[in-house]
Design a protein that fits this description.
This protein is an alpha/beta fold and 566 residues long. Helix content is 27%, strand content 24%. It is built from 14 helices and 26 strands. α11 (387-405) runs parallel beside α12 and α12 crosses α13. The longest helix is centred in the last third of the chain and has 22 residues, at 518-539.
């Protein structure tokens, strides 16, 4: 077995990672076997997006760890500058005969034209953070074609970025250590930001009742981005010409229609352009095509799940549809699986996550007095909740659904939220495992003034520094109780208007407005039973979630309380 063959069969050890990483960190070179490949287009009607790919694999693996590099050239020529270079340390060579996706320890992107060399790290693991595209290792990392022969360990034929690579020659090269490497330590488990690219000119709240005055909105400047990054925001949409600044910041930003292909798609801090799908439940219940046809509770729960699934499928491939107009992807599917539902009706979190989004974000217009009035109207008793208890109730639906489907949740703060209790809202969300802390920017009293957004983020960052949480990916604590509601029901708190509010019984028509028929009575009994269990948990200071019984195993709780609609 020759040296390169040993490289493609190795397994990762800590010692290997440290030793090979040291080679990259100091002014040393690493000997490698390098293959030059020409690109064969998978689209018979289009030229390939680039002509040449050089793939190098280090000759001498250190106890199994493999250092490798790919260089992409627009044209075939001995001295052409690469469009991009990717250097990585993985558990085994991506060209190994096993075909297993390699496990990444280091991931560094170099764009010579911009003089940028960036290593992307996950702050929770200290190891490589990869871009979030679906099936990244399959599509964005070259691998040997099935049945291919080899020359000095390198495959004659590879598959890469939707096309085929054919080997032209193999040579020995020295891979020099890269200088001026920018290390970005990124936190993919906490995304703080807003969906807009503007702020209010006023810088303070405007009167809303009865005037309901709108704000004057102005685009963010470079100085605004710097201020937001310093405050602790780490998730951004882009204004023109700001991308070059955010490339090298330890933050995430949403992709645009114009990209430098393929280099920009290898940036681990560039997320897809879709931040969320908007209010699936609200839109469904306002849809004149269905609102008067929703008769049973299960009509609504089944329909919202299907609507989310349909919209999520469209959103997942929307960026691909945009880029395919100018880029030859061959047979590659560019998918963006990481986006959330942004929704007012937190009670439907379970049914939305069943539909396929990666998370659920509640539109937080938190007002304790209003919440207590709704609670009284729903129970007939005047139990007064604290702000902390109110948030535990809201978040029990969000966290319960997210834990059940192994997805994410969070809250967004709106201008209608009581500013006295909003710092507690985001601190508690963070403590309970939320990934998303967002703000709503625009539209009258919905708007959260820009200075308040900054102050809330600064406050949260102080809280995080004082009380850091473990990784929400690897440390899932066992909670005290799961309150399990029969599938097909939605537990809604009613308003004190005698069911004259638009949201009272919005989800079903089988119940009468007076609340006297059997369907109404059965629902009312179930809701009160749920709230009794909630009150028990609050009084006992238990950590609880509210989920729905879809037949799947429920894990991660010391006590599971299954309720029935009787």
């Amino acid at each position: 077995m020759n040296r390169i063959s040993r490289a493609v069969k190795c397994s990762l050890t800590v010692a290997a990672v440290l030793s090979v990483a040291a080679c990259m960190a100091v002014a040393q070179t690493v000997a490698a076997e390098c293959g030059r490949y020409r690109v064969l287009t998978a689209d018979s009607h289009k030229a390939p997006p680039f002509e040449v790919v050089d793939i190098c694999v280090a000759e001498k693996p250190r106890d199994g760890a493999c250092l490798w590099q790919i260089d992409i050239h627009a044209k075939d020529g001995a001295d052409t500058q690469p469009l991009m270079q990717l250097r990585a340390i993985t558990s085994e060579s991506p060209l190994s005969e096993s075909g297993k996706p390699p496990v990444f320890d280091k991931y560094t992107l170099r764009v010579p034209a911009l003089d940028e060399t960036i290593e992307y790290r996950n702050v929770h693991t200290g190891k490589a953070l990869l871009p979030s595209w679906g099936d990244f290792a399959r599509h964005f990392i070259p691998h040997a074609a099935r049945g291919t022969g080899r020359q000095r360990g390198l495959p004659n034929t590879c598959e890469y970025l939707g096309h085929v690579l054919t080997l032209r020659n193999v040579s020995k090269k020295d891979l020099p250590a890269w200088e001026k490497v920018t290390v970005l330590n990124l936190d993919p488990e906490l995304l703080i930001g807003t969906g807009r690219t503007f702020k209010d000119k006023e810088g303070h709240r405007l009167p809303q009742h009865p005037e309901r005055r709108n704000y004057t909105y102005i685009p963010w400047t470079k100085e605004d981005y710097v201020t937001m990054v310093e405050a602790g925001h780490n998730y951004f949409a882009l204004t023109p010409d700001i991308g070059s600044y955010l490339h090298t910041q330890p933050v995430f930003y949403r992709a645009e229609a114009s990209v430098q292909y393929p280099a920009d798609l290898y940036r681990s801090n560039m997320l897809g352009p879709v931040m969320f799908i908007d209010e699936p439940t609200c839109i469904m219940t306002g849809d004149k095509e269905v609102i008067n046809l929703l008769h049973f509770a299960t009509d609504a729960t089944a329909l919202v799940t299907k609507r989310v699934r349909a919209e999520a499928e469209h959103a997942m491939y929307s960026y691909e549809s945009t880029l395919r107009k100018g880029i030859n992807f061959g047979d590659m599917r560019l998918s963006q699986p990481d986006f959330a539902s942004w929704e007012t009706r937190y009670e439907t979190a379970f049914y939305q996550l069943a539909g396929g989004t990666a998370g659920i974000v509640h539109e937080g217009r938190y007002q304790l007095g209003e919440f207590n009035e709704h609670l009284k109207a729903s129970t007939g008793t005047d139990r007064r909740m604290t702000a902390e208890q109110m948030y535990r109730y809201y978040y029990a639906f969000l966290r319960g659904a997210a834990r059940h489907f192994n997805k994410d949740w969070g809250t967004s703060i709106y201008g209608q939220a009581d500013p006295k209790i909003t710092p507690l809202a985001i601190d508690m969300a963070y403590d309970m495992g939320a990934r998303y802390i967002w703000y709503w920017t625009s539209d009258h009293d919905h708007h959260m003034p820009f200075p308040e957004q900054l102050e809330l983020t600064r406050s949260l960052r102080k809280h995080i520094a004082a009380k850091p949480r473990p990784s929400i990916r690897t440390a899932r604590p066992t909670l005290d109780k799961a309150i399990v509601v029969p599938y097909g029901y939605v537990i809604v708190l009613e308003s004190p208007t005698g069911r004259k509010n638009a949201w009272d019984l919005w989800w079903v028509r089988e119940m009468d407005a007076e609340g006297k028929n059997e369907a109404s009575q059965r629902y009312d009994r179930l809701r009160k039973t749920v709230l009794v269990e909630v009150f028990k948990s609050l009084d006992a200071n238990e950590e609880f979630d509210i989920i729905h019984d879809d037949g799947a195993e429920i894990t991660g709780y010391r006590n599971i309380v299954r309720l029935k609609a009787e």
